[in-house]
Amino acid sequence: xxxxxxxxLLDLVNRPADLKRFSDAQLHQVAQELRAETxxxxxxxxGHLGAGLGVVELTTALHAVFDTPRDKIIWDVGHQCYPxxxxxxxxxxxxxxxxKDGLSGFTKRSESPYxxxxxxxxxxxxxxxxxxxxxxxxxxxxxxxxxxAIAVIGDGSMSAGMxxxxxxxxxxxxxxxxxxxxxxxxxxAPPVGALSSYLSxxxxxxxxxxxxxxxxxxVSLLPEPFREGAKRAKEMLKGMAVGGTLFExxxxxxxxxxxxxxxDQLLPVLRTVKARATGPILIHVLTKKGKGYAPAEQARDKGxxxxxxxxxxxxxxxxxxxxxxxxxxxxxxxxxxxxxDDKIVAVTAAMPDxxxxxxxxxxxPSRCFDVAIAEQHGVTFSAALAAGGMKPFCAMxxxxxxxxxxxVVHDVAIQRLPVxxxxxxxxxxxxxxxxxxxxxxIAYLANLPGMVVxxxxxxxxxxxxxxxxxxxxxxxxxxxxxxGEGVGVDLPERGEVLEIGKGRMIRKGARVxxxxxxTRLAEVQKAAESLTAKGINPTIADARFAKPLDRDLIxxxxxxxxxxxxxxxxxxxxxxxxxxxxxxxxxxxDRGLKxxxxxxxxxxxxxASPADMYAVAGMNAEQIEARVLDVLGVxxxxxxxx
Length: 642
Prior knowledge:
The protein is an alpha/beta fold.
């Protein structure tokens, strides 16, 4: 306990209502203590630090002014919700963030009534806030009641189409609704695009920082004596880059920009809005990501996501790596391919570093496109690049590619356009939990006509799949790989083009065949070693392709073994289902084959280490071994221990 910061006022806050007992001067101190507590907690757990530090004052002010949980604060994405969790009856558990059985790193309805809407993907908060506002006005009932709806959305999230769809609808409905644009000039990567430039222009001129709220916003909200002066100030500013124009066109009153780290500005503005707002209003708040913690402020990503770290130095405690990460292997393989083929281009949605494209962007800036948080646009943009004769690699996390699924179907697959989908974070990802798990891409891609779907069993296979995708021009092709480091295999100088729809034999055995798709292969091999010691010698094959299937390989395995078990890091409906369909169509089950499919269970698995999550899923080596023993009718070892 001794290394924890001293927080005398924060210690008196058990719930947000307690903040109302403090003077504004004391709230300044609460914010300082909240920042220290956030830094201390994340140093123990790791997690998203910079975003939370950027909204400490805003979080304090919102909870001091509004009446949560009756009033609904909806944090977009949720990266920035750690200070909110500390103030909302979860401080005692804050050092369990992102751990097994601990607090989620995002807002989560099942965790607390103070989290009215779950988040983790971006740009959903305004839609949700509007839903709450309409429910309130139609007499909806929740246990905590329904008051104001406040969406807090970052400038990076504001670039997504969904945010504008929601604002357009909100402006039309004219419901009382508060949107706070938390503008820190920086999402995970520096934000890109016209909206970002527009927001930058708003406050590029120093005088805007000094103008009081009266001169810059929703004039009708101001007390009578100020209105005339405010109107005159606004007239004077016309023709300059006044920020309100875009939002006012969408039907929102606009206030700002104001300093998001100055409680003396935040508190009066929020109180005025609470007392007087009638329709939708946007408050434009300027903040700094990582504010108040020098190591985060100085980091290139402003401390976006950190491992556990030393509070004094900011030095992160990362376990030494034994093998390169899959992400870096993909990035290097793509750069190598691009050096030999000038038609290769890369597209990502606000995750250049997360998808391994940092090196590509550095080497080939004119051929790398970060479309910001806009996966739907990114997929269709890639489709037209392909139609225009380029070789686009659309690199997105599995969980984010879900957001562009209609475009994958309509704009890519139906037109048979050769877009190459590089799908990172396949399978269970650990601390980010269910929202970021790559559970569904095998199923949602393998059912599309003409789509080639591959999964790398190790990092050398990933290199082969990159060059296979480069060479494939007949239609769309996808390859998936997990988060984290590879298994440590020797890497070739360069990948080889794989024959489409052909798997590979790993070892020949008898009685039972294990057909693996993806990186569970290492666990399958571990299980096989243990089984061999028990006198069972399984055959192992790596499918490589879920679509098209290697019919010959699968039918041979079925013919030569009494049992066949498929293993994949994906939900039901994926690889194993396609294998079962093939076997059924060929009448194989009529001849008595014992078939089992190991897939992720039909639940959302909460955050833990990947190993723990796969234990819950029943897909680690010992569980694969148990499945083999069960299907062969061999009693499980030690099953009935006293």
